[in-house]
Amino acid sequence: MALDDWNQLRLILAIARAGTLAGAARHLGVSHATAYRRLGRLEAALGETLFTRGTGGYTATAAGRRLVAAAETAEAAITHAAQAESTQPARLTVATTELLFEGLVAELLSLFQAMRPDIALDIVIDGRVENLAHRRVDIAIRPGNTPPDYLIGRPVGTITQAVYRLVDKPATLAPCWVMPDTQSEHTALLAWHRTQRHARDGACYVNTEMGARRAVLAGLGQAVLPTYIGEGDPRLVRVTPPIEALATQCWLLHHPALRAHPLVSELSATLGPQLGQRLAGLEPGTAVV
User: Fold this and answer.
1) What is the residue-wise DSSP string for the chain?
2) N or C: which end of the chain has fewer CB within 10 A?
3) Judging by beta carbons within 10 Å of its beta carbon (0-12, 13-18, 19+), is residue 222 exposed, middle or buried?
4) Between vectors from CA 227 to CA 226 and to CA 230, what angle results, nearest 5°?
5) Residue 286 has what pLDDT?
6) Which of 133, 100, 138 minimizes the C-alpha distance to 119?
7) Which of 34, 2, 31, 28 lies closest to 15 in space, CA to CA?
């Protein structure tokens, strides 16, 4: 019989150290009868006597001493592993989009890390919730109005969007547009551009929101950007009021299995209100005519 249960080795080690079955039972938190039955089953399965019983207590036989040595080695390895684990910082993996990280999340995570320097943060720039579904991340911060039903969370604020252009780029009657390409996941923005008949020769198409921002800063045209990005950048000027049709919620999401995870709960409780305050505080000024 192979000893594949640490509790079997714990029993042998406890008897050797206590010298009595009663003492071993007390150490293990079981009754004397339970310890006796376990030892009997173990010896029967191994086909060897592990301890001799005498007036002085239990003494390990040669076979028993071999197992006691093995138990001590296993105990030392377990203790070492536990100590090594305890010295490692707690880790949290946070996923968000590139724009949210640039405009809001990076600063808020910096504040959290200042409060909890004992927690290591793994940051994943990825808007796909599939990673969260497979438990690859702990918390996701992403825009959207209909989060997947296999995740739980709450909306923490509203993301508004407006048209922005470069400050020193002269306004024209027919400005060039920086738009998402037709393969983009931003279907609402694509639909808005279609209704506004913005697609025409000379438009600049990009496949990421960050690409659109960089294109505007390079002077390639004007684009719809979240106000949390546009309002805080002195290089940009807002051209339109917030576009009601493009308003969306900002969600703080996690996997249901992590509902009671203390670190996930702590980070959620910290980031949620802060994100809401930052989004609510981004009140755009008067539109440029």
Assistant:
1) -----HHHHHHHHHHHHHSSHHHHHHHHT--HHHHHHHHHHHHHHHTS--EEEETTEEEE-HHHHHHHHHHHHHHHHHHHHHHHHHHSPEEEEEEE-HHHIIIIIHHHHHHHHHH-TTEEEEEEE---THHHHTTS-SEEEEE-SS--TTSEEEEEEEE-EEEEEETTS---SS--BEEE-TT-S-HHHHHHHHHTT---TT-EEESSHHHHHHHHHTTS-BEEEEHHHHTT-TTEEE-S---GGG-EEEEEEE-GGGTT-HHHHHHHHHHHHHHHHHHHH----PPP-
2) C
3) buried
4) 95
5) 38
6) 138
7) 28
Q: Which of 87, 118, 139 is the last residue of a domain?
A: 87
287 is a domain residue: no
CB atoms within 10 A of CB 206: 19
Q: How confident is the model at residue 107 (pLDDT cuts 50, 70, 90)?
A: very high
- How many domains does one find in the chain? 3
Range of the domain at 23: 6-87
pLDDT at 282: 45
Residue 15 in tokens: 């008897």
How far is Cα 64 from Cα 122, in angstroms, rounded to an integer? 48
CATH number at residue 64: 1.10.10.10
**pLDDT tens-digit readout, 67-91:** 888 888 888 877 766 555 555 568 8
| 227 domain-assigned | yes
Q: What is the maximum alpha-carbon separation in the chain? A: 105
- Residue 285 has a pLDDT of 39
Weakest mean pLDDT among 36-45, 122-131, 208-217:
122-131
Does residue 71 sit in the same domain as residue 111?
A: no
What average pLDDT does range 128-133 have in this prediction?
Answer: 56
* 286 falls within a domain: no
